[in-house]
Amino acid sequence: VQVVESGGGLVQPGGSLRLSCAASGFPFSSYAMSWYRQAPGKERELVASISSRGDSTNYADSVKGRFTISRDNAKNTVYLGMNSLKPEDTAVYFCNAHRDSIRDYWGQGTQVTVSS
């Protein structure tokens, strides 16, 4: 099983980034996918999630209207589009694949830094 995030980096406030998460080793289209983030000194928090078929999404209040989660089951990839980035969005962003309490996989994370 592999879950690999990419696309993080340094961006100025108000800028945009698109994170990608490539998955392999499990039936991707049967798993709900989520993005979490963890800022220094804070607990990991759910940012956005998407159902296995991509027909249902939900977002943390702090990112609603700015972030968009999407998935391409043909490419075994989930994306997080991030617009109007703020310094408080600075964190390590993690991708999660979830089927049940046992079939739950995490990536290593990608750093997003929003700073001028």
How would you portray this structure in words?
- The chain has 116 residues and is mainly β.
- It is 0% helix and 52% strand.
- The chain is built from no helices and eleven strands.
- The protein has strands spanning 2-6, 9-11, 17-24, 32-38, 45-50, 57-59, 67-72, 77-82, 91-98, 104-106, 110-114.
- The strands form two sheets. Strands 2, 4, 5, 6, 9, 10 and 11 form a seven-stranded mixed β-sheet that branches.
- A hairpin with a 6-residue loop joins strand 4 (32-38) and strand 5.
- The radius of gyration is 13 Å and the shape is globular.
- The model has no long low-confidence stretch (mean pLDDT 97).
Count of DSSP H/I helices: 0
Calculate the terminal CA-CA distance, rounded to whole Å.
Answer: 37 Å
Structural class: mainly beta
Number of E-state strands: 11
Q: Which percent range fits the helix content? A: under 10%
Measured on Cα atoms, how large is the radius of gyration? 13 Å
Task: Indicate the mean pLDDT.
Answer: 97
Strand content: over 45%
Largest sheet: 7 strands, mixed
Shape: globular
Order of helices and strands: EEEEEEEEEEE
Low-confidence stretches: none
